[in-house]
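Fold this sequence, please.
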Amino acid sequence: MKYTPSCDIYSEAVYLADENGNVLYEKNSKQRMYPLELTQIMTAIVVIENIDAAGGWDAQGTYDMSIQNYLYDNRKGGVILSGMLSGNIFTADELFYDLVIRSGYDAALVLAKLVAGSQDAFVELMNQTAAKIGAKDTSFTNCHGLHDTANYTTAYDMYLITKYAMGLDKYREVVQKTSYTCEETDAHKQLIWNTENGLMISGSVHYYSPVVGGKIGYNSEIGRNVASYAEYEGFSYYQIDLGAPYELDNGYNRALVDAKNLYMWAFTEFEVKTIVEGGSQIAEVPLELAWQKNHLNLMIGETYRALLPVELDIATISYKFNLPDSVEAPITKGEEIGSIEFVYMGDEVIGTVPLVAAEDVEQSDLLSGLKSFSNITHSFWFKFIVITIFILIALYIALMIIRNYNHRKYGNFKRKKRL
């Protein structure tokens, strides 16, 4: 179902869906957009899935001169740094906290080199993983998020990527933190990395306590982005907001304003309602080839729940059956026979669930034999053979008639000749 939020939306593209994929709101969700630092969510996924081969979370990466020069050359693009100095050495674990919390470009590049040997090789892994996840309209050209017209995604794809990342224990653990202290060692000084995601910062004008994870991105040319996840009273949502205006509105980041307002709307005005319980007998369909039984009972194959407005009465939801004209025995209980669509306001389908056989039904050998014989008699080849036989018989009869006629005629001719 499509709903219109009770608030203004500033982001150019939005996707808001619950944990089960029920979409509450979307705007230009398949439009190509630029992820900026949200790129690093995929970077984090690839690191998690490949870190063991690189030596594990204790493996060490060096912030070397080549990375420093790369960031210096691109500084006008608005790179985010973490306070590293050339020659500093960090563990993969420390770098991962930097990447997820601070969004450090330096951390992303060191991790990419540690895991894959180079940023180019790492980006290949990013694109392979995006394809595996199903993000078909996404292409990555770097691991950090510096704007590049060839580094793009969509709100829907970023939802898939964020949801996948939240399913990884390491990412879920780290993304919920707002600060991390990287203690001083012989290889580097003490560094403190703080998030800029106002949705998670207590005291921020954007703070919203149900938000337990997220990442922001921004660029004066592209605007502001945020990918986030929120939980409240047993309900959870993922939300992607891309392309909100870059300029602050009296100190307000309008991507974060969209995120907070939409979460408040979702948590206060919607809830998951049970439409039908699995196992409920609800229909029947004509049954053939069963002895003394001409109808098969059907039941709901699975419990169906939907995200609906709080005030909506489920009694106003109607349903429509999609069933075959008949079915043939044998039938096994639980076998899918058809489906049922749940319809709201006369024509809007809000969901579909399977209808399955509510019982086992054995086939009658006698009825099956009669059915097979009937099928044979109605087949093309049977009709062809029968017609051919009739034609041959007719030809034979005609031939016999002609033969007898000629025989009588010839016999009469011979008798007349003798006379």
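The chain is about 35% helix and 25% strand. The mean pLDDT is 91.
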